[in-house]
Amino acid sequence: MPDRGGGPSGPRIRVGRPSRRARTLLMTLGVLAVLAMAFVMFSGFWTDWLWYRSVDYSSVFTTQLWTKIGLFLVFGLLMAVAVGLNIWLAYRLRPPLSAMSLEQQSLDRYRMGIAPYKRWVLLAVTSLVGLIAGASASSQWRTWLTWVNGVSFGQKDPQFKMDVSFYAFDLPWYRFLLGFGFAATVLSLIAAVLVHYLYGGLRITSPGGRATAAATGHLSVLLGVFVSLKAVAYWLDRYGLAVKSSDFKATDSWTGLRYVDANAYLPAKTILFCIAVICALLFFATLWRRTWQLPVIGFGLMVLSAVLIGGLYPAIVQKFQVQPNEQAKESPYIKKNIDATREAYDIDDAKVTDYSGKNDASDPKKLREASDTAASYRLIDPNVVSPAFQQLQQERKYYQFPSTLDVDRYKGPDGKEQDTVIGLRELDITGIPKRNWINDHFTYTHGYGAVAAKGTGTDSTGSPDFTESGLPAKGELPAHEQRIYYGEKTKQYSIVGGPQKELDYEDNGEKTTSYKGKSGVDISNPLNRAAYAVAFNEPQIFYSGAIGEGSRILYNRTPKERVEAVAPWLTIDGDAYPAVVDGKIQWIVDAYTTTNGYPYASRTTLGETTADALTDTQRAVVAQQNQVNYIRNSVKATVDAYDGTVTLYQWDTEDPVLKTWMKAFPGTVKPKSDIAPDLMEHLRYPQDLFKVQRELLTRYHVTDPAQFYSGSDAWQVPDDPTNRQSNAVPPYYLSMKMPGQQDQKFSLTTTFTPNGRPNLGAFMAVDADAASKDYGTIRLLKVTSNVLGPQQVQSKLNGLPEVAEFVRNLKGTDSEIDYGNLLTVPLDGGFLYIEPVYARGGTANYPLLKKVGVSYGDKTVFEDSLTEALNAVFGVEGTTPPTTQPPTTKPPTTKPPVTGSTPLAQAIADAQKAYDAGQEALKKGDWTAYGKAQQDLQDALRRASEAGAAPQPRSGSKGS
Fold first, then answer.
1. What is the DSSP string of 445-512?
2. For a disulfide at 557, which of 261, 280, 490, 893, Cβ 3.0-4.6 Å?
3. In this structure, which long-range contacts are made by residues 766-771, counting pairs with CB atoms below 8 Å and at least 24 apart in sequence?
4. C-beta of residue 35 within 8 angstroms of C-beta of residue 43
5. H or E stretch including 62?
6. How many Å apart are CA 321 and CA 293, to the nearest integer?
7. CA 331: distance to chain centroid?
């Protein structure tokens, strides 16, 4: 470049424009950076679309997408136009700047600086507020869809006689519109004030008028709009009283109008509405009067009225009218709250019966006979025996069972249903022998097999009596596809179906396989591979040679995750459970529709209400709305464990919330009539709904307002006496008979204690069998005598000398005691408590059922078996075992006798010898010898299997 002069002589650094090649390179890099950022954003959208299309729920994705886009554009544009129009109007109404005051001279610098960029500033401001408003509005897609598709409840609130749908669907949308209107008005007002001040329409220090007539008129209209919106808010607040939460001594979560609301707040809101309308008219009148005197006076009156009428007056009414005779004043409103709450939580038909809880007059022999058919006493606690499943049936280190197993019903060899504890052998990638990307995502892709055990008894060693076991699994369950690609523990992605083979099994051992299911997203093409490489932050997906023709990626693999994704309007139960249905393993997921807008119904917090001693991350509820005051188990969903197919079935055909969502997402929920009979046999009453209902019934079993107000008959859910932590006792599934029933019903049960007291207050059971005509019927036995509660029974059991001796002997063998579920069963006017007791430690580091504690009336016993315990507690001898308790397991059976000193014969002889040694050690309580015998037994059985035999013992050994 030529020298411009002015600098010192000497060497000069030549600074010039970059060369054409450098400019081209910089431009290319800039374009590539923009394209890269665009592709990162695109990849998230594209992979979501591919996933929804792969599960055949693309309509859910598109409905959400277009709803969000529509709300974003409409409300973003409205906000931008509102703010931009007022900025433009304020600029057009600027006064001529003839006489420049010092204030205006200082502002002139800013005006001159902005002048060349006025349009860009206007565009930037309106774009920013538009983007923020649009993003906020798009998050209201659920509110919009329920408003536009809302279905009538067919029920009216007792105060305003409005349909419940108004509060559930309409009022939330109106409140959003009102909030948006306030935001648009306030932002427009701020923007207008700034522009008017910048261009002289408003003056602070200049002599003369503080505002021009044009500025006065403009700002007055905006203030009038603001006050008009406030009038609308006062009017909506009237209806909001029906769903307003407040503190009230009768309940911790009162919802709805009380006396002070109906007789003070309600008329106050009406008066304030009228004052606000008048005040708004006064602001609009300044367009002609050109003075703020009257509207300012009106606004001050409105503020004063809000303090006096809206705050002070209700306080006076509460102090001098309600408090002196609160029970009488509040009774009509308490009654409305009781009725609405019982209806909203579907507990209004609960059958409450007085029950003595004591029986000292019955013949012991008759009681003993009745105990045999009162229930199928589930001695196998699914919350305790998971380590036994893991130890005996894990088979490979890279498999695992859930920490809490599930209870279901399956038919035994005799064709009768039996309570069954079941768990799936799912993949655990932390146990893979050699961890690398190929092994984690290509080779080890799925779990294998369902493992089931009788719920009512164990084998002779105290281990679960498996009815389905081994790898591959064999037993009493119907034949089914055993590969588990989708499960509660399966959270990593897998790539299947391509060149890389997967580890699999057959009767003769390991083999390889290639996924044949329809699940997953095709990633054989470069676009999809690149998108997933970016979305999963894994570059190897793009260039790995293990991916090729037919490769599919599986992700979102937990049942709850899949159901929540395809039905984002549902709240998912915390306990998905597996069932063998029609040759497949299906995960069954209960789902709820909820709202927090049911008038007068008290609210509950799902996360707190559904928490108990067993709740963990696996069993936590997936809540769309954590605070609710209406809930229905409206949908039963299934997820195929092999191909991930998600199916939603309408369960509650009357639920207006579900009908609303079915209108919003047509075709996503199948009718109830499509549920196959084989699936219906495994559907059950959901635990989380039951826990919500039992929490509400601690107070709302009372229907008399005076008694409800006094709280004299309030209950509480007791803490789990078998758990050292102070957490609520979980509900238990159990086949049992309630008083008046002739046959056992698969039920979900719980106990209550009086508030602040340990004795038994009530017993609750719901018919949990979906195929039963009485499904969902809640029965409450209200205890009228002083009966021992769960904690008292546990304490009494712990205090028995036999228990103390048992614990001492366990400590001597380096073992510990585990208490199983404390079952409560009504029996002939009293309550029978049954608790399995497990030993854990020594050579068998998993729980073995060793003792059974039983309590009835004032007597508590601790025996070796359920039969002995029942005989002892009723004081009878020689009674035959109950039909629900399996007979004592015999030694391992073999093929017909084999003659000669062959390896097979020797192995069978060794197995018999090891079994006899184990039984002898068991009688002596020698756990070391027992553990050695079990190891010898397993070794002998393995040798017998290798030699050609196929014994199926029930001795707790692997492979049983």
1. --EE-EEEEEEEEE-TTSSEEEEEETTTTEESSPP---EESS-TT--S-EEESSSS-EEEEETTEEEE
2. 490
3. 766/685, 766/690, 766/693, 767/685, 768/684, 768/685, 768/733, 769/409, 769/684, 769/745, 770/680, 770/683, 770/684, 770/685, 771/680, 771/681, 771/683
4. no
5. helix 58-92
6. 39
7. 35
Using CB atoms within 10 A of its CB, is residue 359 exposed (0-12), middle (13-18) or buried (19+)? middle
Q: How far is Cα 585 from Cα 576, in angstroms, rounded to an integer? A: 12
Coil, helix or strand at residue 836? strand
186-205 pLDDT, tens digit per residue, is 999 999 999 988 887 787 76
DSSP-based three-state secondary structure for 752:
strand
State the residue for tokens 């390179």.
25
Supply 220's token pair.
């007055």
Residue 125 and residue 116: Cα distance in Å, rounded? 16
pLDDT in tens, 734-783: 999 999 898 999 999 999 999 989 999 999 999 999 999 999 999 999 99
Calpha distance 436→546 (Å, rounded): 13
Task: Give the angle 171-595-670 at the CA atoms, nearest 5°.
Answer: 115
pLDDT tens track for 532-581: 999 999 999 999 989 999 999 999 999 999 999 999 999 999 889 999 99
SS3 state at 676? coil
> How far, in Å, CA of 918 to CA of 904, rounded?
21
Classify 604 as helix, strand or coil.
strand
**Which of 879, 819, 882 is CA-nearest to residue 851?**
819
pTM for the whole structure: 0.84
Locate 714 and state its tokens: 């309030």
Q: Kind of pairing, strands 778-783 and 351-355? A: parallel
Q: Please give the Cα distance from 805 to 810 (Å, whole number).
A: 9
595 strand-pairing partners: 630
User: From CA 428, how far away is CA 400, in angstroms rounded?
Assistant: 6
Burial grade of 927 (CB within 10 A; 0-12, 13-18, 19 or more): buried
Distance of CA 898 to the CA centre of its chain: 57
- Spatial neighbors of 849 by CB under 8 A, at least 6 apart, are 379, 380, 458, 462, 463, 820, 836, 837, 838
Q: Residue 612, SS3? A: coil
- Specify the amino acid at residue 916: D
Q: Which residue has the tokens 């060794």?
A: 910
In angstroms, the CA 796 to CA 787 distance is: 13
Number of residues that make up the chain: 960
507 CA to centre of own chain: 39
Is-contact 549 617, C-beta < 8 A?
no
Q: 3-class SS at 957?
A: coil
Cβ–Cβ under 8 Å, residues 143 and 173? yes
Q: Is 242 helix (H, G, I), strand (E, B) or coil?
A: helix
Question: 863 by DSSP, 3-state: which?
Answer: strand
Give CA–CA dist 572/626, Å, rounded. Answer: 11
pLDDT greater than 50 at residue 267: yes
